[in-house]
Write a structure and sequence with these properties.
By secondary structure, this protein is mainly beta. Helices cover 7% and strands 31% of the residues. The protein has two helices and 13 strands, in the order βββββββββαββββα. 43% of the residues are buried. This is Mast cell protease 8.
Length: 248
């Protein structure tokens, strides 16, 4: 899931094409109990995976790009090959942001209404959202977890994690033409070479126990930093849609 290039590897041929990530750290089982393992079929009928996070007993937030056919959500997962005692819950309704743009990757946020409420336990818990316009500051170090690609484009069975540093907005403006600091976060120190990858999209960027961002995009060259959706800017939208979801 995550990229960490050491000095030893610097002398070896390394490819980062396609979001290839190396030397991820396996998370302690159920240390991120809010995580949702999401699968769906894309327009070409390819089975894809994403992350998501439980914010209410029956609501998961993920990235809008994770929308497709036959979306499935499983809670309480650490190893996706060992699903005993996990909670697979059908998705009742999908609410993708109306202004999501897949080319510019803006408004990359989506709500999933589950068919029934999750049973909260040590492996399944909700995570707090920030207040509206509550911004994380540059240099702050936060955590991302997911089941995204490892080195060699292999997909891990077990949940991986990494700590990433928030960057100044100017760093992302130089690499991403459509970067908007009011709705997006610039994340990842180029000197550390740690990053997310394909399959991690939709997962939360967690700062002090609060979901502040959503993994959204990385540069086509594999260079850092990356761009995450800034959740605090979407709190009014989330609250509005949550009210709609509560209606019978």
């Amino acid at each position: 899931m995550f990229l960490l290039l050491s000095l030893l590897v610097a002398v070896l041929p390394v490819s980062t094409e396609g979001g290839e990530i190396m030397w991820g750290t396996e998370a302690k089982p159920h240390s991120h109990p809010y995580m949702a393992f999401i699968r769906y079929y894309d327009i070409k009928s390819n089975l894809k995976r994403c992350g998501g996070f439980l914010v209410e007993k029956d609501v998961v937030i993920t990235a809008a790009q994770c929308g497709g056919r036959n979306i499935s959500v499983t809670l309480g997962v650490h190893n996706i090959k060992e699903l005993k005692n996990t909670q697979p819950i059908p998705v009742l309704k999908v609410i993708r942001h109306e202004d999501y743009n897949s080319e510019k990757m803006v408004n990359d946020i989506m709500l999933l209404k589950l068919k029934h409420k999750a049973q909260l336990n040590k492996a399944v818990k909700t995570i707090a959202l920030p207040k509206s316009q509550e911004w994380v500051k540059p240099k702050q170090v936060c955590t991302v977890a997911g089941w995204g690609k490892l080195a060699g484009c292999t997909l891990p069975d077990k949940l991986q994690e990494v700590k990433l540093e928030v960057q100044e907005s100017d760093v992302c403006r130089k690499m991403y033409k459509s970067y908007d600091n009011s709705t997006q976060l610039c994340v990842g120190n180029p000197k550390e070479k740690k990053a997310t990858a394909d399959g991690d999209f939709g997962g939360p960027f967690v700062c002090n126990g609060v979901a502040q961002g959503i993994v959204s995009q990385h540069h086509c060259t594999g260079d850092l930093p990356e761009v995450f959706t800034r959740i605090s800017s979407f709190i009014p939208w989330i609250q509005k849609k949550m009210k709609l979801l509560q209606q019978p």
